[in-house]
From TrEMBL:
InterPro entries given in the database record: AA/rel_permease1 (IPR002293), APC_K+_Transporter (IPR053153)
Protein name: Hypothetical membrane protein
Pfam families for this protein: AA_permease_2
GO molecular function terms listed in the Swiss-Prot or TrEMBL record: transmembrane transporter activity
GO CC annotation terms, alphabetical: membrane
Membrane-spanning parts: 21-41, 67-91, 112-133, 139-165, 177-201, 221-244, 265-287, 317-338, 364-384, 390-408, 428-448, 454-471
Places the protein is found: Membrane
Membrane topology summary: Multi-pass membrane protein
Length: 673
C-alpha cells in the first residue's frame, strides 16, 4: 500500500502511536525486550522515587527524637534487602513472570491470587496518580502562586502523555525517560556523598551524642516506648518499599535469559534504593533538618548541603536536583503502566476479568489495559483534585497485601518441598523473614491509616474482588455450556457409527472446482463451536457447495507474546486444527483447504485474507458463527467477543457476502434428534 493511499486518521495514528510491528520478524522478542539497565529505569523508578517522600514520612514520625533515625535507617536497609532477596527467589521459581498475582494463585489458591491481583491493580492506579500528582506539586513549588490553578490540568496532561508513550510500546517509553532517571541518580549521589563526607571528621562526636540521646530517651520514654516509636516511624516509611515487586511482575518484558536479567535488575534496584534512602535519612540527622512551610524535607536538606557552595553553584544544583525529583515522580508512574496491564492480562487469561484485557495492539502492547489504568488514574486525579495528602493515605496498604500473600505462598512452597532441595532451609528462612516484616508493616499501616481514609482503598479493592468473582462465575457457566457442544466432534468422526449429518459428495472432488459455490468458514480451533458453524452451513446449502475453505486467525495475546516458542506452538496448533476440519470434508468427497494467519487484530487479518480467497473462488460465500445468549445484556457484551459483527461490516463494504450462523448454547436440533 502506498503512503498516498493511507487515510488521514491512519496516518495520524501512526505518527502518535508508531507503525505496526511485524510479527514475522524473527528478532521481534529480542528487540522489544529490556536489558537490566533499561529495566532498572522502567521498573525501578517507582521504588527509587519513593525516596522523595518515604524517608521524610519516617523521619517526621520521630518528632523531637530525631536521633532514633539511625535505627529507622538500619531497619529500612534490612527490609529492602530482605524483600529484594525474597523476590529474587520468586524470580528463580517463576522465570516467566512471578508477580503477586501469579505467585499467590499458584502457591496458595486461585481465589487468594485474585485478591492479590485486585489489590495490586488498585495500588498501580494509585502509583500513577500519586506519582504524577507529587511531580506536579514539586514542579509548581518553583513557580509563582499565580500558576497554582494550572497544577491539576498539568497533572492530567502528564497522565495523558504517559498513556500515549506506553501505547507506543514499553521500550520507547523507557528510552524517553532514561535522561531523567540518570539525572536523579547523579544529583542525589553527589548530594548524599558530599553530605556524608563533609561530616566524616565529626563522626566520633556524633556517635557519642547518639549514645547520650538514647540514654535520655530511655529515661523519658522507657525502653518499650522508644522501641514503639522506632517501629511506628519505620512502618510510616512503608511507601519506600512499594516498587520492589515490579521486577518479578515485569519479567516477560526482560531480555533473555530472563531469570538472570531479572536478578540483576533487582540487584540494581535494591542497591540504589538502599543507598539513596539510608543516605537521605542519615543526612537528615547530620544536618539537623527541620520541616519548613512550603518546602519538602528533601528541599531543606539539599539547601543545607550546598550552603557553602555559593548562590549560583549551590542554587543551580538544588534546582536541578529538585527538578529531577519532580520529573522522576512522573517517571515512577511508568511502573503502573508497565506492570498494571500485565496483571490485568494475566487475570483476564484466567477469566477473572474481561478477556479483552489480554489482547495486544499492533504495537504489541496491552492497549486495553493501558487505557484502563490511565483512565482510572485520570478519574482519581480529578476526584481527589490531585491532593497528595489524600492520595498518600490511600497508598501503601494494597501493595503490602500482595507482599504478604506472595511471601506466605513462598513459605508454603519451601515447607512442601522440604528435604527435596538443598536450599529449602535458606529459602524458608528468607521468605519467612520477609513474611514477618511485611505482615508487621501491613498491620501497622492499616491500623494508622484506616480511619484517615485507608478504608476507602480496602472498600474499592473488596468491590473489585467481588466483581472478579462475578466475572469468573459467568465465564465458568458459559464455558460449561460451550463444552457441551464438543460432543459434535464425535458426530463428524468418520469412525462413528452414528449416521453423519454431512452428506457425501456423489462426485468426489479431485482438483478444486474454482467456479463452483464455495463456503469460506471462519473457525477458532477444532471444537464444538466451529463444527456447529460447519454443520449449519451444510444444512443451509446442502449439496450446492463443492469447496470448503477453513480460515483461522491466531490471536497473539499476552499469553502468546512470551517468546518465539509460544508463537510457534500457536501456529502448529492452528495448522493441526484446520487440517482436522479439512480432513472431515475430504472424507466426504469435497475439496477442502485451510488458510491461517497470526496477528493482534482478527478483523484486520481476515479482511486482508478475504479478497484473495474471493479472487481464487469467485462464488465464495463467507460464514462465521456467533454465540447467542438467551438474554443479551451489558455484561455479555462486555465479557464476550462480538468481532463477527465488525467483520461482517468490513466484508459488506468490500462487496463480499457474509452469513452469520447463530450458535445457541444448547445442542443443535439434528443432534438432539
Amino acid at each position: 500500500m502506498s503512503n498516498d493511499s493511507i487515510r488521514p486518521t491512519s496516518r495520524l495514528r501512526r505518527i502518535v502511536f508508531g507503525k505496526s510491528i511485524n510479527l514475522g520478524d524473527q528478532s521481534i522478542f529480542h528487540n522489544l525486550s529490556l536489558v537490566a539497565f533499561f529495566a532498572w529505569v522502567g521498573l525501578g523508578a517507582d521504588g527509587l522515587s519513593s525516596s522523595c517522600y518515604g524517608p521524610a514520612e519516617a523521619f517526621l514520625a520521630l518528632g523531637q527524637h530525631t536521633f532514633l533515625a539511625v535505627f529507622v535507617a538500619l531497619g529500612t536497609a534490612l527490609t529492602i534487602g530482605v524483600i529484594s532477596a525474597a523476590y529474587s527467589q520468586i524470580i528463580e521459581l517463576f522465570p516467566t513472570g512471578g508477580g503477586g498475582y501469579v505467585v499467590a494463585s499458584r502457591l496458595l489458591s486461585p481465589k487468594v491470587g485474585m485478591v492479590s491481583g485486585c489489590a495490586l491493580l488498585i495500588d498501580y492506579v494509585l502509583t500513577i496518580t500519586l506519582s504524577v500528582a507529587s511531580g506536579a506539586d514539586a514542579v509548581f513549588s518553583f513557580l509563582p502562586a499565580a500558576f497554582l490553578p494550572y497544577r491539576l490540568p498539568t497533572a492530567v496532561a502528564g497522565v495523558v502523555a504517559l498513556i500515549v508513550l506506553n501505547l507506543r510500546g514499553v521500550k520507547e517509553s523507557v528510552m524517553t525517560l532514561v535522561p531523567i532517571f540518570m539525572t536523579f541518580v547523579a544529583t542525589h549521589a553527589v548530594a548524599i556523598g558530599y553530605g556524608v563526607f563533609a561530616h566524616l571528621s565529626d563522626m566520633p562526636a556524633l556517635a557519642a551524642r547518639l549514645g547520650q540521646d538514647v540514654t535520655a530517651a530511655r529515661s523519658e520514654l522507657g525502653g518499650l516506648g522508644m522501641l514503639l516509636l522506632v517501629l511506628h516511624a519505620y512502618s510510616m516509611g512503608a511507601g519506600t518499599y512499594t516498587g520492589i515487586e515490579a521486577v518479578s511482575n515485569g519479567l516477560p518484558i526482560l531480555r533473555e535469559p530472563r531469570e538472570k536479567t531479572g536478578k540483576r535488575t533487582m540487584l540494581y534496584m535494591a542497591l540504589s534504593l538502599t543507598l539513596t534512602v539510608v543516605g537521605i535519612i542519615t543526612c537528615y540527622l547530620l544536618f539537623d533538618v527541620r520541616p519548613q512551610d512550603g518546602k519538602t524535607l528533601n528541599a531543606v536538606l539539599f539547601e543545607n548541603v550546598v550552603a557553602g557552595w555559593g548562590p549560583d553553584l549551590g542554587g543551580g544544583f538544588v534546582l536541578v536536583t529538585l527538578v529531577s525529583e519532580a520529573l522522576l515522580l512522573f517517571v515512577a508512574a511508568q511502573a503502573g503502566f508497565v506492570d498494571g496491564p500485565r496483571v490485568l492480562s494475566n487475570m483476564a487469561l484466567d477469566r477473572w476479568l474481561p478477556a479483552r484485557f489480554a489482547l495486544l495492539s499492533d504495537r504489541l502492547v496491552t492497549q486495553n489495559g493501558i487505557l484502563l489504568m490511565g483512565v482510572s488514574a485520570l478519574v482519581l486525579m480529578v476526584v481527589s483534585h490531585g491532593s497528595v495528602d489524600l492520595l498518600i493515605v490511600l497508598y501503601s496498604i494494597n501493595v503490602f497485601i500482595t507482599f504478604v500473600l506472595s511471601q506466605l505462598g513462598m513459605v508454603r512452597h519451601w515447607w512442601e518441598v522440604r528435604g527435596q532441595r538443598v536450599a529449602w532451609k535458606k529459602g524458608l528462612l528468607l521468605n519467612g523473614l520477609g513474611l514477618a516484616l511485611t505482615l508487621f508493616i501491613l498491620v501497622m499501616v492499616t491500623w494508622v491509616k484506616f480511619f484517615e481514609g485507608g478504608w476507602v482503598t480496602i472498600l474499592i479493592t473488596a468491590g473489585l474482588a467481588a466483581a472478579a468473582l462475578g466475572v469468573k462465575r459467568h465465564y465458568d457457566r458459559v464455558g460449561r455450556q460451550i463444552k457441551k457442544l464438543d460432543v459434535l466432534r464425535a458426530v463428524v468422526d468418520p469412525q462413528n457409527p452414528y449416521t453423519p449429518p454431512i452428506p457425501v459428495n456423489p462426485e468426489p472432488a479431485g482438483q478444486p472446482d474454482l467456479g463452483a459455490p464455495t463456503a469460506v468458514i471462519f473457525v477458532n480451533g477444532f471444537n464444538g463451536l466451529g463444527i456447529h458453524t460447519l454443520l449449519s452451513t451444510v444444512r443451509l446449502f446442502g449439496k450446492d457447495i463443492k469447496n470448503y475453505v477453513f480460515v483461522q486467525i491466531g490471536v497473539v495475546d499476552a499469553a502468546v507474546f512470551q517468546g518465539a516458542a509460544e508463537l510457534s506452538r500457536l501456529k502448529a496448533g492452528m495448522q493441526r486444527d484446520l487440517e482436522s476440519y479439512a480432513a472431515v470434508m475430504r472424507e466426504r468427497g469435497f475439496h477442502a483447504e485451510a488458510h491461517w494467519a497470526v496477528g493482534t487484530d482478527i478483523v484486520a487479518e481476515l479482511t486482508e485474507l478475504a479478497p484473495a480467497l474471493r479472487e481464487r473462488f469467485p462464488r465464495a460465500i463467507f460464514c462465521g458463527g456467533q454465540l447467542v445468549f438467551e438474554k443479551e445484556t451489558f455484561v455479555t457484551r462486555l465479557l464476550h467477543n462480538y468481532v463477527i459483527f465488525a467483520l461482517q461490516r468490513q466484508l459488506y463494504r468490500m462487496g463480499l457476502p457474509f452469513i452469520i450462523m447463530p450458535v445457541r448454547l444448547d445442542l443443535p436440533e439434528w443432534f438432539a434428534d
